[in-house]
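Help! Submission page says 'invalid entity' but I think these are all valid:
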Amino acid sequence: MQGRSCGLCGQTRFAEARLVAAPKTRRHVSGRNSRCITRAAASGPKLMWEALREAVDEEMEKDPTVCVMGEDVGHYGGSYKVTYDLYKKYGDLRLLDTPICENGFMGMGIGAAMTGLRPIVEGMNMGFLLLAYNQISNNAGMLHYTSGGQFKVPIVVRGPGGVGRQLGAEHSQRLESYFQSIPGVQLVACSTVANAKALLKSAIRSDNPIIFFEHVLLYNVKGETNDNYYQDLERAEVVRQGKDVTILCYSRMRYVVLQAVQELEKQGIDPEVIDLISLKPFDMHTISASVKKTRRVIIVEECMKTGGIGASLSAQINEALFDDLDHQVVRLSSQDVPTAYAYELEAATIVQPEQVVEAAQKIVQKQMAYA
Amino acid sequence: MHGRALANALRRATSSRAESSAPVLNRLWSRNQQTQAASDDSSLLEVDVVPYSTHRIDSPGTTVNTTKAELQQFFETMYRMRRMEIAADMMYKAKYIRGFCHLYDGQEAVLVGMEAALTFKDSIITSYRDHCTHLGRGGSVLEVMAELMGKANGATKGLGGSMHMYKVENHFYGGCGIVGAQVPLGAGLGFAHKYRKDGSVAITMYGDGAANQGQIFEAFNMAALWDLPVLFVCENNHYGMGTADYRGAKSAKYFTRGDYMPGIKIDGMDALAVKNGVAYAKEYAVANGPIILEMDTYRYHGHSMSDPGSTYRTRDEISSMRQLRDPIERIRSLLLNNELLDTAELKKIEKAIKKEVDSAVEEAKAGPLPKEEMLWKNIYKDTLGMHMRGRDSKTKIKLT
């Protein structure tokens, strides 16, 4: 009988199917990389991709049902290094290099999740997951409901989105809002090194299907993490307390807003900055407490003007907090255009700190004019 | 369509009929070597089935062992499935069942033969034509009928409907509404079996219409690449809704469409051929990796209740299938010709099953409607104390 080589370990096999076990024996092969793997989460500043990697590593070590699948998550080291060298520790089956077939491997991850495994499915870019949209919507989001509660889908769909540096229209999509209407999914956007690790750990532990948005430009942000810390996926973060205006933002826009805040402080304006973190469901508890205090809201998002996350949030704030508002909800979002390649046009597509400063000035000065 | 497809269908029908018309009793012996009356339940019966077509794999043998007990169980289960689908037809026309209703009558042998070769530890996922799959996986007629009527005691508490029946404890991962979307899920079930090294297989069922979906080839590739224990079962009933198989596919030899993956074409109207083929395939898959099984079968009803089923095929074709290849009649002939059961006993069985189905229908009709709070249940596994907004955006509903 002709032997066939196994697609995972390369060995020639005749009859028995062989699992490629996590090569424990490889640990003794020393070198900088393997020391990095076995070292426990160290203190000291680290890059966001390292923090995300720690989250994946820690959860995979704790729970053998956690596994990763996606393009180039294994031998290549992860296109943004989030799974760098983890295959050496956990083996090829738990760090599964998939072929380029988003619809197929998303479905596969969801099927595996239905049996009780906890797959982390990586989209190399969240934009590619449009190919997998049917699986995410019907089979991840809705399955717990349509099965009368029989099946849960504890899957994490993660990857970078947002506008990068001249990556072109198809690789600069900001499509968080495309997923927000799907019943049954949670949407989370991380922004700092600390919350990236803590949120990803929680997302992996969660029994709900989580769509976890990272950002292409944030992987090399430096910061500290908290050891063994799980952050609530559904809570917003109050980044800066203030009284003049509530600025709601998420992901990279947090940094854009904070840059604007530096300028606003010089002008004597005292904004309260809240990082949404949870894009679905919104943390209306934290948001309404802030709105009741400041009575003015600016939403700053990278998502599209039409139908973006901000559009939903704006409607919800209007409906729930109309009587607590002194000004219409101001919404700064990306232009409804494909992201151009040219640097200046790309910059003009998304919200810049100048727009935030201008909006805050206007909203506060209007108030002062009536005072 | 009519001429060529009809000729093909009749050719298939008559070739299989030639094998099964004569009493296919080759050898009959009892376990303790005494010549006993053929009505002994455990006596082995050898039955010849039509040859399998194969692709990159040796054929299974064409002599299948069975027993009276097994044949009787086949008959009962298939007859129950048939009566249930006919009842669903009547209830749909009487407007107790609404929406989409895809009936399985004619295809019963596929499920019954398959389950005979599997255990409930193996996983199954299928398409929207899943009422009988639910039965095969240990569900009851009441669960199916109540679900079709949208009652709270249905298979998925009235929330899923015809296309979404599930039974988690028996590893039935459901029907699926979107054509072909279940196939990558099935690859995931196979992945999980391999991950857990539990020696079971995943059966992923899809139709000839779905067989042209890109995601199926994505699933083929991944399953073959990683040697996942998956049986890709293509139920070829020759029509993707209203489009004949050869009108939708450049190659309608679905068992070869896996290219590098082996495949077997099985007479899907013969429960014994199916049992034999699936057992062979399961052994192969556990040891080697995925395999395609094309079940040559036929549905008597149209695609769904809104399809009369006669605008794209002739009534002659349908009735000749019933006469020459009906799966229940085949088993009935085997039982009668081998004197395992007589006409009166079979009539008794049929009567009991008709009664069972009828009373399940009545019980389903009288079943409770889902409570309003079910609207908000099971949206999330972990509800996080979330509040949802009502239609007016003002009403707040706390998720429990």
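Support: the input was valid. A stray whitespace character was the problem, and the output above is from the cleaned input. Chain A touches chain B through 58 residues (CB under 8 Å).
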